[in-house]
Specification:
Layout lengths: L2 E6 L8 E7 L2 E7 L12 H4 L15 E4 L2 E4 L2 H19 L6 E3 L5 H15 L4 E3 L4
Parallel strand pairs: 6-7
Antiparallel strand pairs: 1-2, 2-3, 4-5
Length: 134
């Protein structure tokens, strides 16, 4: 027996939906969602292969911080603190415009909107761009 899990394709901002076919905890296939208003049961080659990176043995699954020449596994709290301290340090020492954010076409429109709000509202800079413009 298998489970079907509805999800959104991670490869662009279009937002196509498909089902992940899961057998004994392992994703084995992608099945297009026929009722989705955008994809209408069709998927591009990226969407059809969207699950393959999930179980890749080289995929990072835990946060790492570089200490000396090595990457050391740390807790999520420590990793978030390191990022926040780094961003706040740059902002304090060099000003908000020393920061910039590059967003991704792999994010949904909603995620890109949140990235823009974070960049302007929290970091205090308008230095934001999107990879589709590069």
């Amino acid at each position: 027996m298998f489970d079907m899990v509805l999800t959104t394709c991670p490869f662009c901002g279009t937002g196509c939906n498909f089902y992940l076919k899961v057998i004994e905890g392992e994703i084995t296939d992608v099945v297009p969602c026929k009722t989705h208003p955008v994809s209408k049961g069709e998927l591009c080659v990226l969407g059809r292969n969207a699950y393959k990176f999930i179980q890749n043995k080289n995929r990072l699954t835990k946060p790492l911080i570089k200490k000396g020449d090595d990457f050391i596994e740390v807790s999520w709290s420590e990793a978030y603190k390191k990022v926040a301290d780094g961003l706040l340090g740059i902002k304090k020492n060099y000003g908000s415009d020393a920061l910039a954010v590059l967003s991704s076409a792999k994010c949904t429109n909603e995620e890109n909107y949140l990235i823009m709000k974070f960049t302007r509202g929290v970091l205090g800079t308008n230095n934001i761009d999107h990879c589709a413009r590069l």
